[in-house]
User: Fold SAM-dependent methyltransferase from Micromonospora globispora.
Amino acid sequence: MTDPQATVDEETARHWDELYGGRDRLWSGRANAHLVDVAGALPPGSALDLGCGEGGDAIWLAGRGWRVTAVDISQTALDRAAAEAAAAGMASRIDVQRHDLSRTFPAGEFDLVSAQFLQSPLEFPRAAVLRAAARAVAPGGRLLVVEHGEVPPWARAAHPDRRFPTPEETLAELDLDPDGWRTERLDAPRRQITGPDGQPATLVDHLLLVRRR
Assistant:
């Protein structure tokens, strides 16, 4: 496991460590469905997983031959990701790094840069981080951004005015050179989930997939 001794905002790190520390496991351990849909059709190469959490996406990618740099601000999440990678026999294919993406960014270029639900209730320079993510894409590589498209039904009463950027708005924020990039997907897929009280629900996600020429 690699720790580049990155400078982190302690308040932000504490927030995410407490969130992960409140449960034995925060996420399912399965890879995000949209990542599976996109990356499952790609030849393996190098991948950067931004906001890797407990490592579900990174382990899935590594199991399909990718070399993965997995990044998060939460040391608790990274420790779990490293342990899960070792248990799955994928530790040699996953480089776990701690970064506060508002301050530091992993070095290198990658065939796939994945930002799965890289959204925060805290102050976070989302657009600047996504532009840095685009700069990290190698020639011929892809940037995949998947975000929440709307508040889930069970939380709408508490957040009646919450709005998320559309895929088109996210693409505009990236400010990509149209001669250097091709947009492969720009849509709002729906997925079926089970809510916290067991109720079925439909969620809207926002998906952007662009390829560097």
About this structure: Strands lie at 46-50, 67-72, 94-98, 110-116, 137-148, 181-187, 190-194, 200-212. The longest strand covers residues 200-212. Helices lie at 10-21, 33-39, 56-63, 75-87, 126-135, 167-174.
